[in-house]
Design a protein that fits this description.
Largest sheet: 8 strands, mixed
Structural class: alpha/beta
CATH topology: Rossmann fold
Radius of gyration: 20 Å
Distance between the termini: 62 Å
Number of domains: 1
Number of strands: 10
Shape: globular
């Protein structure tokens, strides 16, 4: 009796240690730039944390567009905002690819102008990140293969149940390409997430604000996309708390928070376009609630990637 109890306790202990090392993440948010993770799913992450679920965040870039933005500052803003939500720094990964250039990555290493971790402007051909869970091994070159490899490794390690990622119809090329790289990485894996929740941040006009002169309308639900797909998921959130998290990204605000476009995302809900997958040969094919929606990763994303030299 005593030995069986000991064996049971040892098994449970091993299970806990395995879970602590990584794997079986409940919610994984994949964002192109620091601040997109909160704009997309700040409310969703907060609710998951309150339920005791494991949440992780992956940032493909540092948000260091050319030498105009300081990647170290933007990384720190993400860590600060996520800490307030309840996501610790050890559950945040910065892959360190260059802001504004995800669509330009090809098999040939890219050289870009960007601020380095020392704050100096120069030419770079490899990734860098100073915050979040450190990457093991040498910094990879700026290629599409490296980014796909890095994202594949993260997905394989974390084995997320639900993934939140920018939509392939997002008008910002980095946002659309984030979804493309996610799908490329996913095709390399034998197991897909239970559900993927896609989010649009950049659309036409001042969306999600209805009036460009009054971006903050927290009591209103997110309006439909202009001439776009219809979201099939709306998650009620605390708009006031989300506004406070958006305010942590001070480097991205052009004026008072309540008058900034980013405040438009602090609404009573977060909307998503969901999809699940079924294996089709060497790829995971999308199964979506709205069958009229096209598989943009192949029709738009990959077409754009081919023109960039992949």
């Amino acid at each position: 009796m005593r030995w069986s109890l000991i064996v049971t306790l040892l098994a449970l202990s091993c299970g806990v240690r395995s879970r602590a090392r990584g794997g079986d993440i409940d919610v994984l948010v994949i964002a192109p730039h620091p601040d997109d993770e909160v704009l997309m799913a700040g409310g969703v992450m907060a609710q998951a944390v309150r339920r005791g679920e494991r949440v992780a965040v992956v940032l493909l870039t540092n948000g260091d567009l050319s030498c105009q933005r300081d990647g170290s500052v933007r990384q720190a803003e993400t860590i600060d905002a996520l800490a307030d939500i309840g996501v610790s720094e050890e559950n945040v990964r910065f892959l360190g690819y260059p802001d504004g250039h995800l669509g330009s990555l090809s098999k040939t290493p890219l050289e870009v102008e960007r601020l380095g971790p020392d704050g100096r402007c120069g030419r770079a051909t490899t990734t860098w990140a100073t915050r979040g869970k450190p990457r093991t091994g040498a910094a990879p070159p700026l290629t599409s293969t490296s980014l796909t490899d890095d994202l594949t490794a993260v997905l394989a390690e974390l084995r997320p149940r639900d993934v939140y990622v920018t939509h392939g119809v997002d008008l910002h090329h980095d946002h659309a390409m984030t979804y493309v790289f996610f799908r490329r990485a996913l095709d390399r894996l034998d197991v897909a997430p239970r559900r993927v929740h896609r989010s649009v941040i950049h659309a036409r006009g001042c969306w999600p604000a209805v009036d460009c002169e009054r971006p903050l309308q927290p009591d209103d639900p997110t309006p439909p996309l202009p001439n776009g797909p219809v979201p099939d998921e709306r998650v009620a959130i605390d708009a006031e708390r989300k506004l406070s998290w958006i305010g942590r990204y001070r480097s991205q605000l052009d004026g008072p928070l309540e008058q900034d476009w980013l405040a438009s995302f602090a609404r009573e809900d977060e909307v998503f376009f969901t999809e699940t997958y079924v294996r089709a040969g060497t790829r995971w094919a999308s199964r979506r609630p709205d069958t009229r929606e096209k598989d943009v990763v192949f029709e738009e994303g990959f077409a754009g990637a081919r023109t960039s030299g992949k």
